[in-house]
Amino acid sequence: MTNDSLGRRRRQQAMAPIGHKLAFGVSLLISCCCVAKAVVTFSLDGQWTAVNTNKSIKISATVPGGIYTDLKRSGVIGEPYYGFNDVRYAWVGYENWTFSRRIDVPDALLNQERLSLVAHGIDTVCRVKLNGVVLFDADNMYVRYIADVKDILHRKGNIIRVSCESPVLYALRKHEEQVRSSYPVYPLCPPSVQNGQCHV
Question: Can you give the residue ranges of the Beta-mannosidase-like galactose-binding domain (predicted)?
């Protein structure tokens, strides 16, 4: 087996478990230093709250999932793939969305030697905070992010926030940085019949 095919195989194996998630999935993983003890998990999948940039939209969101599905389920938008709804709902991509949830954890978890928050498939440019403390900034959906939360997590009233930047505005900012470096990436915009976003 060549080094190239071995590397490709490892990448495929690493990416396979998270490829099906639309927006993000987050889990608390509690692990111990002792090899004999099993890893204990506390999943954060389920109901969250999603809020847009100016807080004019506040809806229930499902994790793992996607904002379009959440908006449709809440009656804010209709079927995104019907007619010209891709144009009608283009505003969704220009919004920053913040997902939050309050969590209580059992004492058995807090008594573990190590507490780590592990995030899979965060799509894409998002800042993750627990109780106001920045854990990490995500910028790649295919990377697993791990943060130590031993000194941050409490028994009750924990607030986790995942603040995601507009992918359209993020791409535009990165495009402008690239143009300033005198090396633009083409095409700048897709053909108009595709109704796509420029620079993404």
Answer: 48-184
CATH number of the domain enclosing 126: 2.60.120.260
| CA dist 148 → 24, 31, 103, 144, 153 (Å) | 19, 11, 17, 14, 10
Q: What is the domain range of residue 34?
A: 3-165
> What is the pLDDT at residue 198?
80
- The position carrying tokens 């780590």 is 116
**How remote is the C-alpha of 2 from its chain's centroid?**
34
Q: Decide: 52 and 96 in contact? Cβ < 8 Å.
A: yes
User: Do residue 175 and residue 136 come from a single domain?
Assistant: no
SS3 (DSSP) at 158: strand
37 falls in which pLDDT band (50, 70, 90)? low
Question: Tokens representing 143?
Answer: 């990377």
How many domains does the chain fold into?
2
**pLDDT tens digits along 102-158:** 999 998 888 899 999 999 999 889 999 999 999 999 999 999 999 999 999 999 999
